[in-house]
Amino acid sequence: MRLTDEEKAMADGRDGPAIAKAMDLLVRYGEALGAEALVETRNVTGTVTATTPFMRDFALERGGMDAVFSEFSLDSQEVVAIPKVKAFSSHLQLGFDPHHPKEMGVSEEMVRFYKKSEAEVARLGVQILNTCTPYQVGNVPTRGEHCAWMESSAVVYCNSVLGGRTNTEGRESVGAAMLTARIPDWGLHRDEGRRGTIGVHLDMPVESVEDWGLFGYWMGDWVQERVPVITGAGAVPNLPRLKHFGAAASSSGGVEMFHLVGITPEANTSEQAYGGNRPADLRHYGPRERAATLERINANGSDRQVDYVMLGCPHYTIEQIWEAAQLIEGRQVHENSALWIFTPRAIKDVATRNGYTRIIEAAGGKIMTDSCSAMSRAVPPGTKVVALDSAKQAHYLPAILGLQAWFGTTAQCIDAACSGRWSAP
Ligand code: F3S
User: Closest Cα to atom 5, ligand 1: which residue?
Assistant: First the structure.
């Protein structure tokens, strides 16, 4: 791998052992991928805290957060002192919501450790956004900006909707990128990796958040890791729609980038989106595909009694909280059910100022932050059946917690929370 003089100096230890280890990791990682160089990044999003019992015990036994960072972010069993980050870095979602420890099933001791770990990471200069949607709360990459992001739903949004450039990184590579402001230059950092390789044509309007989630789930299952070019889209989808679309496509498949012709920034035309590639295949999405996908997502739902409704995967926007508050105002969550809504902390603050938190709590629901049920493995006690408006969460919760899941619109989910039953067809 070719290194610049600056990179060689970092690798040779000019800036201390942690940065030398970070460079060593990035070079090994880049060489394994066939990258010829590193690219400079000023935007890293990932996870470096310790909020699971395993990580807490590791930190306590091995000497604190430096040991966690050395082992899990620098691949080093030697514990080195971690300096402040060089790149603007933000923190992703974590293992639980520290403001609702009882609901999340964690002890006060875990919360104290969480806060300590968070404070140490903040001291390194990492922004404590604690969300899978950093692009909602202060980290909005510009078109062409090289990033190093974890979290599949954020990666596909960054590449496709914002035109930022990132591969799906892991805990190891983002830690090294935070310290060096470098990441291997391959895959979606390069023009050739971003060009469309397969075609999808819409034979029907895709309009609601539910529609976009279903379409994404169908598309991801078919295209897997290829870059789809989608034609035939009608009305321009907004942030919640594209957030649910990308999250679904990166759950049923490994989609890291899509082009919506006439809408997303690298797809003014089909020709631009393909960039000279010939599509390997083309499929149509219409009412038959939509109906089959809805049936597939709901395949393991059989009991109509709903114990729990979870909204906010990916973390809800303020528009979605506004909608949920309007749907539930003046109603009550059923005594045998529960409603939890997940959102970034900063958006919860806005929701509180706007009165939505009060409306949702008066109805018996809760707004939570930092995590979600799939990440925390936390659901209300006794939950067997869950209702969701997210295809991604409907994909994961049955697999992770063995629950039955119903997927539908936000309105159907709120109805289920208030009646304790899934009444959608
Ligand atoms: Fe976010 Fe959890 Fe979904 S972290 S994307 S809400 S699985």
Answer: 314
